[in-house]
Design goal:
elongated, alpha+beta, 3-stranded mixed β-sheet, about 35% strand, about 45% helix
Length: about 100
């Protein structure tokens, strides 16, 4: 279990984001909670981390809802995905008698 965070970190480095386009509407039922969550999301909505990420999310203060559409494209580097798994397997084999 101690090796799991390293495995996850190494595996994530083999996954690359091509683009993420998301649009939608959300509401929590309580206008105050909806506004609070929307305020916390504003940095992601209006200052995305890269040009490959486009987010359009609108709050619905009248009703609880979650509606939208997501278009996501990723590509994987197979060698970078297999190497962390092989390292973990070798470590587990060497630890067990």
């Amino acid at each position: 279990m101690r090796a799991l965070p390293g495995l996850v970190a190494d595996t994530i480095s083999g996954i690359h984001l091509d683009h993420l386009h998301a649009e939608g509407c959300f509401g929590l039922g309580d206008p105050a909670e909806t506004g609070q969550v929307f305020g916390q999301l504003c940095p992601l909505l209006y200052g995305p981390p890269s040009r490959r990420v486009q987010l359009a999310l609108t709050p619905d203060f009248d009703r609880p809802c979650l509606e939208g559409r997501v278009d996501l494209a990723l590509h994987f580097s197979l060698a970078r995905l297999l190497w962390p798994t092989a390292k973990l397997a070798l470590r587990e084999i060497s630890v067990r008698p």
